[in-house]
Specification:
Elements: H1 11-34, H2 45-63, H3 65-118, H4 129-136, H5 149-171, H6 178-195, H7 210-232, H8 241-275, H9 282-307, H10 318-326, H11 331-339, H12 343-351
Helix pairs in contact: 1-2, 1-3, 5-6, 5-7, 5-8, 7-8, 8-9, 8-10, 8-11
């Protein structure tokens, strides 16, 4: 039964109402034919009673059309009401979908503006702003602006790795074990998948500059922690500011704790390269001396910034360099390294007994 069809035009109504009427009319004609000779025109009560007695069956048959018609009319109204309700729900659903789309578009546009203005990952080569948005808010097109659980996983992994780094610093053994390397690989994988940033994990058992490598990892942790925190909270708070602030404070503290060892590693590497140089080759000797000078000057600049003291001079590094030189058992190697030092450094080391 079509809801938009008029009741009188429906086949079911015509059949269920028309059949009793037609059948009753046939019975009426049969009864009339059988009683035609005995019928006369009369207006008395007895005549009406006689009429209903003769034709009560045809009349009863035709009267069945009344409840059947009412039943079909009620059913037709129900179908029309259901159609109206369905139509209203479709309109509501269409409006909700339109609102979801509009909210998603506005949310995405605001994220784009935020990403371009604040550069949460600085100038690192992450995924495009749209890809980062879709990674962090994967269900946004359906109107769900909850953050991707992978972002929370990354922050939790960083907190766990910081505990591991603290243990290494305390034990004064900076070589990463297999469990920590596996966690770093897992963190890299999630970070690469989510925002396109990763840090190479050194897989060799022995790392040449372990303190410097750890500092590199820590800076990577800080970068993605701050960036993810900004992206996740750009329109409402998902991660408390205090949590990320605590992560960054721990990272900075550990970088500072590692710096003396890292400085020693960098100076030792520059000196080792110089010791391995053929000093008879003047060009190589000059280059090696220049590398050592630049390394010492860079370390001195870092030390000045950290100590906030521009009066620091080469003598502040001489104890570290003296210690490195003393590790060379061969006096000729120490002398060779000493020749490559800046003039002032040679003088200071000579005064402290490097010979």
């Amino acid at each position: 039964m079509a809801p938009n069809t008029h009741l009188l035009e429906t086949k079911l109504f015509r059949v269920l109402v028309g059949c009793p009427l037609a059948l009753g009319l046939v019975f009426f004609c049969i009864a009339l034919g059988n009683s035609w000779g005995s019928l006369t025109l009369c207006g008395e009560a007895e005549c009406f009673s006689k009429f209903f007695e003769l034709f009560k069956f045809p009349i009863g048959t035709m009267s069945i059309a009344i409840p059947l018609g009412a039943l079909i009319a009620s059913q037709h109204r129900s179908v029309q009401t259901k159609e109206q309700i369905d139509s209203q729900w479709k309109q509501i659903e269409a409006q909700e979908n339109q609102n979801i789309f509009a909210n998603h578009l506005a949310h995405r546009t605001h994220f784009n503006e935020f990403f371009e203005e604040f550069k949460p990952f600085e100038d690192e080569n992450t995924y495009s702003k749209w890809e980062v948005y879709e990674s962090i808010f994967p269900n946004a097109p359906e109107g769900n602006f909850d953050v991707n659980p992978s972002a929370e996983f990354i922050l939790s992994e960083i907190e766990g790795l910081l505990e591991g780094v603290a243990g290494l610093i305390k034990a004064k053994d900076l070589e990463l074990g297999i469990p920590m390397k596996l966690r770093l690989v897992g963190l890299n994988s999630k970070s690469e998948e989510l925002i396109g940033l990763s840090e190479t994990v050194v897989k060799n058992e022995h790392v040449e500059l372990p303190a410097n490598q750890l500092q590199k990892y820590l800076r990577f942790f800080e970068k993605i922690s701050l960036g993810l925190h900004s992206c996740m909270n750009f329109h409402r708070t998902y991660v408390p500011h205090t949590r990320v602030q605590n992560i960054c404070q721990r990272i900075q503290s550990q970088i500072v704790d590692l710096e003396p060892t890292g400085r020693r590693e960098r100076l030792a590497k520059a000196i080792a390269i110089g010791v391995a140089t053929d000093l008879d080759n003047r060009q190589k000797a000059v280059q090696a001396a220049q590398n050592i000078r630049e390394t010492i000057e860079k370390e001195l600049d870092k030390l000045k910034k950290h100590e906030q003291n521009q009066l620091l001079s080469f003598d502040s590094l001489s104890p570290v360099i003296q210690e490195i030189l003393n590790e060379y058992a061969d006096k000729s190697q120490r002398d060779k390294a000493l020749k490559l030092m800046p003039g002032l450094m040679i003088e200071l080391l000579s005064q402290t007994g490097a010979n």
